[in-house]
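anyone seen this seq b4? input:
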Amino acid sequence: MPYKFFVFLVLASFSPKLFSQIDITISGTVKELETQVAIPYANVILKSENNQTFVTGTATNEEGRFTIENVSSGNYILEVSTIGFNTETQALFVGKLSKFLDVKTILLTENITSLNEVLVTTEQDEVSSKMDKKTYSLKDNISQSGGSVLQAMQNLPSVTIQEGKVQLRGNDKVTVLIDGKQTALTGFGNQNGLDNIPASAIEKIEIINNPSSKYDANGNAGIINIIYKKNNIQGFNGKVGFTGGLGSLWERKANLPDIRPQYTMTPKINPSLALNYRKNKVNVFFQGDYLYTETLNKNEFVNRVYDDGTIINRQTKRNRDTKFITLKSGLDWNIDDRNTLTVSGLYGGEIIIDNGDEPFVDENNERLYLWRFLEDEVKTTIMATANYQHKFKEAGRLLTVGFNYTFHREDEKYFFENIQPTFTGLDSFKLLSDEQVYDFNIDYVRPLKYGKFETGIKLRKRNIPINMEFFQGQNSPIDAGAGGWAEYKEIIPALYGNYSFENETYEAEIGLRMEYVDLNYLVNPDHNTYSSDGYNYTEPFPNMRFAYKLNENNKISVFYNRRVDRPNEVDIRIFPKYDDAELIKVGNPALRPQFTNLIELGYKTNWEQGSLYTALYHRFSEGTITRISSTDGSSNIIYAIFQNAGKSYNSGLEMVFEQDITDWYAVNLNGNVYRNQIDAFTVENLYPSPNTFSADKQEITSGNLKLNNTLKLSKKVDAQLSAVYLAKDIIPQGKIESRFSIDFGIKKSIQKGKGELFLNATDLLNTMTVKTEIFGQGFKYTSSNYAESQVIRLGYSYKF
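predicted toks r here
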């Protein structure tokens, strides 16, 4: 291990950088003091404070209003003059908080009147000036190009991936948005589907650790916002691309007896097309992606030991074929200078075929029985969005009205072969659910001299009727009495207000979101265990941020957030899931929300060629939602059921360091060390029969490290070598061992910059093996998952 860790430190990794220009606008009105009459065509000039040189300027319109755009951070002199009036000047501080600021009214008299400070920003770093989020451009993420969004996230600071779920700072309670909205593609409150969204369709990813009250209160770990590409170039233009790859290049561990061959040399194909036409007041856009993959989705070896001395070994292998298509299109209509209407639609279609084998053998490697399954799953997502925006006379003062509709169909069919020594049973079930979500929101933003004020309302209505039918074969282990229908119904109105302030020394932001939730889960009266349940609450969710600027390049911030994790529909779904013969996953309609408070202290310093961001945080939760694995005493079958486990804590220190060493080499280091604790708890599981489960307190110190190098080999060639190290951590009732991986990518610009070629490889050393250990009442088991992680891709794209 020391040698591997040394290799890891030497072979550093890349975490994408983004230094993008932000267009900042200063606006105001010029009037005569005595008459209060607007003064048209007055000269408004911005000068450098140091040498009084001209920077930019404009003139007031007929209403006496002026607008100055694209102003960089710094100290300036604002000068207003016109014939017949004395020139008015004032020193202006340009900060890094608000994109739009209104200096209100400037009065011209025979005397010089001082103006107050104005705050403007121009550059958005990896870590925002407010230190509330990090932003990463996927076009620079060469080592993960051509893969899915989930794979691309593995290199991002603060983010880890565990069993297909996204974690922020070691916590998987993450809300994932697409273009600022929750959708069925990523799940309402979870991360479903991220592994099927092509990274080629995405412009950038925002990681929001400390969301303001404007955002939905769900997701105590934070928010990940995935932003689709959109072109603003005039005329007709577009981009076409194609990526091919191979994964699972060889068999990492020999299969158990009588298992069908596992996938190797799995193909990956991803063509993409983006089109855009912008002329006059109309912009039409289209983004289409197709992703076909064959994947060794799971290859887990388990050793299970029961208290009575029984030892069972098993392997769970899944060969998965996935076809996923996403189409996004829309229209931006600039009705006039102040009114814009955007209408867009998104379609996602997914077909999954899983062929699984699960042999069970004794300690002598003799087969006891074999469980084979075929999963045929079709998912369809349709989303329609309409947004109207009105710009007031003051720059940055906006009123936005939005409506979003989502339809998501989940159509699953499972077929099982239960191969025993004396018989073969054929079982199956089918599940159908149609989810419909209606979101309506109104948002208002008003820039102020020293910041801005935001307020708005949101209303959500969500219904999910679901039905499951079981078809039993000979000696079936399937619980047919747990089938039937259920319906998830949710209504959430919310109101928020948020105020931010900044001057040359201090920053402050305070907000409050009031949220009402009414959730009902209706269960058919024939279900053998569960009955209808639900809850409602009215809760405040405040957020606060206070910052002190030591100087222009050094800032300290303190954050506070209260957030919630509402159980998702899958968490309370009453139907047992049989994709593992002896580990049955079941939901719990009695599950309740998990409320979390977060306190964070952050420090950021910048210098000419780099920056350092550090954050010390503490998160404490009530009603922690977790899966409990236990037996009911009647068999060796383990039931994994969601429960509220009580109190839990997560405290840590995060660091993001970046430095441009030379004009061709940059280094980036991201580290996160945290301590997780789950207090002792006792719960009662109802399924399949009432049983009590107790767990002792769990605690561990864990973390992750991403040490990064970026190389510009020539004007047209860039390369990345990326690695991730994840330390040992706790999971419900157990622990997960440390692991690491190394990725490499290189790209070359061709065809006068219009074309691009890239080659990359993930998990070069094939070291990303997930090893876990679980302790339950009456049993314990260890597992090693050798699922596909090593993939080589070659891609080409062309802009026209």
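Residues 315 and 361 are 9 Å apart (CA to CA). The helical segments are 2-10, 149-152, 569-572. kinda curious what u guys think
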